[in-house]
Amino acid sequence: MKRVVVTGLGCVTPIGNSVESFRDSVYAGRTGIAPFDLSSLPGALSPDPSIRFKTSGKVKDFRPTENPEHRLSSSFILTSEVGAQFGIIAARQAVAHSGLLQHHDPTSIAIITGCSCGGRGADEDANRNLYLRNARVPPTAIIRTMASSGTSNIAIENGITGPTLNISTACASGTHAIGLAFQMVRAGIAPAAIAGGYEGALTYGFLRAWDSMRVVSPTSCRPFSADRDGMTLGEGAAMLILESLETAQARGAHIYAEIVGFGMSADAHHVTKPRAEGAALAMRRALEDAAQSGIDSPAGRIGYINAHGTGTPTNDAVEAAAIHQALGELAPHIPVGATKSLTGHSIGAAGAIEALATVLALDAASLPHTAGVTEVDPTLNLNILINEPLPLTPGKDLALSNSLAFGGLNAVLAFRRYLS
Amino acid sequence: MGESMDDVESRIKELVAKSKNLPVTDVRMDSTFDELQIDSLDKINLSFEVEEMFAIEIPDDSLNSLKTVGDVVRGVEMLRAATPADSAAS
Asked: Is B19's CB within 8 Å of A78's CB?
C-alpha cells in the first residue's frame, strides 16, 4: 500500500476564495456568517413570510464572468449552477497549486467529489415557472441540476479522463469523497486524485425547508457552547490534491499532510436523530485504518479533532458522546474545534472545507479555535478550543476530521502532520 | 407584429453574444455556429430562448439546417409571418 499525501489545496468559501485568505480568516477567527435578505432571493414571496433565522455563510465576491481568477467559459456557465462553479474554481486552484498536470498522467488521475444538493437554483426556477404558469422547462435544467455537474466540468476543464464520480451522502459527502480518493491512491488504482466537495444551495426553497426543520440558529452557529441554539447554513467548495508520498517526494512537492486513515459507518437508527455509537464506530475505524498504515497506538497520538460541530444541541452532545466512546479516557484532553462557527454548514462541501482546515492546522502545527463560543458546555467534558489558536502538542501529530450526516452516515478522516 | 427584420436581427445577435460571453460586434449575420463555437447544447439552448423570445416553435427538422446567425434570423421571420399577430411576443 502506498502512503498518501496532500500536495495541493483550493477553496471558495464564505471566509475566503483562496487558501491564503481562508487560512487568514481561520486563524483570525473571522466569520463569514452574516445577515441575508430573504426577500431578494429568486422566487421569494412578498411580503416576506419571515423565517426563524436571519444569517447564513455566503461566498462573497464570486464573479465568474468578471473576475479573471474565477473566469468560467460560457459552456461552464451554461451547464452549471453556482455550487458546481465553486467546485470548478477550487479544483482549478488546487491543480495549479500542486502542479498536478505537469507531473501526472491525466488519463489516470481520479476526481472524486462530494455534492449533496446539486443545482437547486435551476430546479427551483424551472419548477416555479412550470407549476405556476405552465412555462416550458429550459433544456439546461437537467444538466444544471445534476449533483455531478461540477465533477464533470472539473474533468472537462483539466482534460482528466481517469475514474471520476460524485458522492452524495448529505453532510458527509466531501469527507466520503476524500476518503474514497485516499483509498484509491493508497491501493494504486489512481496515481493521484482531485478530491473534495462543493455546494451552493442557499435558495429560497432550501432556506424555507431548513426553517421548517427547526434546527437553524436564530442567532449564529456556536458549536459546543452551553447556549448553542442551532446550525447556520453555508456554501462553498474545497479541493485537495492527493498523491503517493513517493511521487510527491520525487518531484519535490510541498506536502501539507499525510492521510493515514479513513473510517465509515451508518447509524442504522434514524434519519435525523444521530446515535453516538455510529459516529464512534467511524472514528474507531479511521484509527484502525491508521494502525494498518503502520502507526503505533494512533488514538494516543491524536492532537486535534476537527469536529462535525454543527452547533445544534443534539449534534454536539451526540458527537461529544461519540468522542468519549471512541477514545475513552483520552477524550477530555484532546483539543476539539469546529470550523462551522466561521463558515456555516455547507452540506456536501462541509467535510472538504473542514479537511482543508485540518490539513492547514497540521501544516502550521497550530490549532484554530472555535469562534462564537460564550461558555463551553461543561456537560460535554471536552477540551474545546476557544479564544485563540493553540500550538499542536509535540508527539500528538494525528488529527481527525469528523462528518456526521443526516441519515446517520458517518465519515472520519485521519491525517498526520508530515515532517520531511 | 410591430417588429422589423432589423429588430429581430439585433435581438438574436444580442442573445448569441450573451450566451457566448462575446461582444455583440463579434456576431455577424454570416457568422457560423462553428466560428462562434456554438455546440449542440448551445444550439438547443439558443433555440429554446429564441422560441421563448418570439413565441414561436422551431420544428425539430429545421433545427439541423440552421448553420449561421442569419439562418436563425430568417427562420424567425418566416415563422413569425406564419404566426397570428396576437400570439407573438412583444
From this structure: yes
- Residue A47, preceding peptide bond in cis (omega within 30° of 0): yes
Judge if ipTM > 0.85: no
Q: Over chain A, what is the mean pLDDT?
A: 96
B19 to chain A, any CB pair closer than 8 A? The answer is: yes
| Alpha-carbon gap, residue A117 to A115, rounded angstroms | 6
Flag whether the pTM goes above 0.80.
Answer: yes
Q: With CA atoms as reference, report the closest residue to A59 among A29, A89, A80, A38.
A: A89
Q: Which three cell numbers stand for residue A51?
A: 423565517
Which contiguous run of DSSP H or E holds residue A264?
A: strand A257-266
CA A117 – CA A94 distance, rounded (Å): 23
First-to-last alpha carbon distance for chain B, in angstroms, is 8
| A335 close to A305: Cβ distance less than 8 angstroms | yes
CA B5 to chain centre: 12
Q: Determine the Cα–Cα distance for residues A154 and A160; give it in Å rounded to an integer.
A: 8
Per-residue pLDDT of B11-21, as tens digits, reads 999 999 999 99
Element (H, E) at A414: strand A409-416
Distance of CA B13 to the CA centre of its chain: 8
Q: What is the pLDDT of residues A326-368, one digit of tens each?
A: 999 999 999 999 999 999 999 999 999 999 999 999 999 999 9
* Beta carbons of B42 and A77 less than 8 Å apart: no
CA nearest A79 in B: which residue? B41
Q: Given CA atoms B12, B18, B21, B26 in this order, what sign does their dihedral have?
A: positive
The amino acid occupying position A123 is D
Contact B40/A at CB under 8 A: no
Q: Tens digits of per-residue pLDDT, A170-218?
A: 999 999 999 999 999 999 999 999 999 999 999 999 999 999 999 999 9
Please report, for residues A41, A128, A132, A156, A214, the alpha-carbon distance to residue A45 in angstroms, rounded to integers and kept in the order given. Answer: 9, 12, 13, 38, 20
Buried b (16+ CB within 10 A) or exposed e, A67-88: eeebebebbbbbbbbbbbbbbb
Sequential DSSP letters for A11-73: EEBTTBSSHHHHHHHHHHT---EEE--GGGSTT--SS----S--EEE---S--TTT-GGG---
Q: In angstroms, rounded to a whole number, what is the distance separating the alpha carbons of residues A286 and A73?
A: 40
- Residue B64 Ramachandran class (φ > 0 left, ψ -120 to 50 alpha, else beta): alpha
Q: Compute the distance between CA of residue B25 and CA of residue A287 in angstroms, rounded to an integer.
A: 61
* Mutual angle of helices B40-54 and B69-81, in 10-degree steps: 30
The pLDDT, as a whole number, for residue B90 is 40
Catalytic residue list of A: 171, 308, 345
Q: How far apart are CA A143 and CA A188, in angstroms?
A: 32
How many angstroms away from the CA of B21 is the closest CA of chain A? Answer: 6
Position B63 scores a pLDDT of 87
